[in-house]
Write a structure and sequence with these properties.
Blueprint (H helix, E strand, L loop, with lengths): L4 H4 L3 E15 L2 E8 L9 E10 L5 E9 L2 E4 L3 E7 L11 E6 L12 E8 L2 E8 L7 E9 L4 E10 L1
Antiparallel strand pairs: 1-2, 1-3, 3-11, 4-10, 5-6, 6-11, 7-10, 8-9
Protein name: DUF11 domain-containing protein
Length: 163
Amino acid sequence: MLVSAALAAAPLQLTLERSVVRSVSEGERTVERLEAAPKTAEPGDLLEERLRVVNTTQGTLSNVRLDLPLPTAEVAGNNTRLATYLAGTATPATHRWTLEFSYNGGKTFAAEPLYKTITVLEGGKNVQKRVKVAPEEYTHARWTVKSIAPKETLIFGLRARVR
């Protein structure tokens, strides 16, 4: 499991769980089932990751930053592929924590919508334009928790599709 450097030194117990989401027919309706993620994934598989965070101390922890890179999945042929974030599936921000994303490998984070500056050629000149970043381009999610009480457990998660 990859976590931020600040988090690695914190008195937290972290457990990352990965599942594959399967749609199963039950009579006239279709339901989702979570299955243990296999060692290799197929392009198109829907992955769900859950980060379980437990404050193992006797004190309240403040401003805890939890960085979760989008999953990579080993697919047939030993290729490692990045899975793309499925918009709207991350544990949403609340009064207790914020949610931000990165599109540049975790260098910078911001709340949605994300924007980036690109250079395009217009009329023979390079012009910089500010464009919206598609959720499929996100590389990391970050939750910043205002406080975690002693022995409290929180769960954060998201879904991503294997490319």
